[in-house]
Amino acid sequence: METEKLKIFDEHRNPIGVATREEVHKMGYWHETFQCWFISRENEVDYILLQIRSDRKKDYPNLIDITAAGHLLANETVFDGIREIQEELGIDVSFNDLISLGIIDYCVTRGDLIDREIANVFLYESQYTFDDYILQSEEVSGIVKANFNDFYELWTGEKGEIKIQGYEIGKDGEKVIIDRVANKNEFVPHEYSYYITVVNRIKEKIQKRK
After folding, report:
1. Given the DSSP bridges, would you call strands 64-65 and 68-71 parallel, antiparallel or unpaired?
2. pLDDT value for 208
3. What are phi and psi of 70, to 5 degrees?
4. What is the 3-state secondary structure of 80-126?
5. pTM (whole model) above 0.85
6. How far is CA 133 from CA 82, 99, 118, 167, 169, in A?
7. Do 123 and 199 form a contact (C-beta atoms < 8 A)?
8. What is the pLDDT of residue 77?
9. Of 38, 100, 105, 112, which alpha carbon lies 20 to 30 A from 173's?
10. Cα(161)–Cα(153) distance, rounded to whole angstroms?
11. What is the structure's pLDDT at 171?
12. Using CA atoms, how far apart are residues 150 and 143, in angstroms rounded to an integer?
């Protein structure tokens, strides 16, 4: 995976070449990602769905993250990013059913990792149930949901923790039910401004739908 080739860009989003994934994160090149946040509505309540990253992941193992996301390869366009949903969650979603939340640039530095992302961010209104997902064990170990208003207030600072419910795949391959609280420290440390931008844009879409 570290040898995957990615397009790299300058700070103005102008393409400047191609580099391996390892080089991209070592040198801090800007690169493109695809990100899709799932929401669902149950009994008049809006929920956001989140993945739990596999303990096999090199970066941020076991942390809670975007429903489905990944790097766009050098030969891919944003439309090809839809494959991340099928690969990680085992469901087929049409790109035409995605709602654009725009492009968000952000940078996170952690140790030797310099992650400068040009994130193509989308929203998907899911009708799927937890039983429909087939998780890619190398990437995703579990999936949970949280009340969207609680999730919003977690990132705006109005709540210190939120309730999450779902399941994780245990070492024996069986589902282990999750029903507990989680705080910000359990989420992948995307830039704080990124989270604020995302929750506000999702909230706008939900309000327009109503």
Report:
1. unpaired
2. 86
3. 180, 175
4. HHHHHHHHHHCCCCCHHHCEEEEEEEEEEEECCEEEEEEEEEEEEEC
5. yes
6. 15, 21, 27, 11, 12
7. no
8. 96
9. 38
10. 9
11. 86
12. 17
Show the low-confidence residues of the chain (pLDDT under 70): 1, 210
Detail the DSSP E strand segments found in the chain: 5-9, 15-20, 30-42, 45-53, 64-65, 68-71, 99-110, 113-125, 140-147, 161-169, 175-183
Is residue 158 within 8 A of residue 196, CB to CB? The reply is: no
Give residue-wise pLDDT tens across range 59-89: 899 999 999 999 999 999 999 999 999 999 9
Count of C-beta atoms within a 10 Å radius of residue 170 = 11
Structural domain spans, the chain: 5-209
Strand partners, 106: 117
What pLDDT shows up at residue 210?
Answer: 60
For domain 5-209, the CATH superfamily is Nucleoside Triphosphate Pyrophosphohydrolase (3.90.79.10)
Tokens of 145: 């949901």
Could you give the C-alpha distances from 187 to 4, 72, 78, 100, 159, in angstroms and in order?
Answer: 26, 22, 25, 23, 15
**93 Cβ partners below 8 Å, 6+ apart?**
36, 82, 85, 86, 124
* Polymer length in residues for the chain: 210
**C-alpha closest to that of 110 among 18, 33, 54, 188:** 188
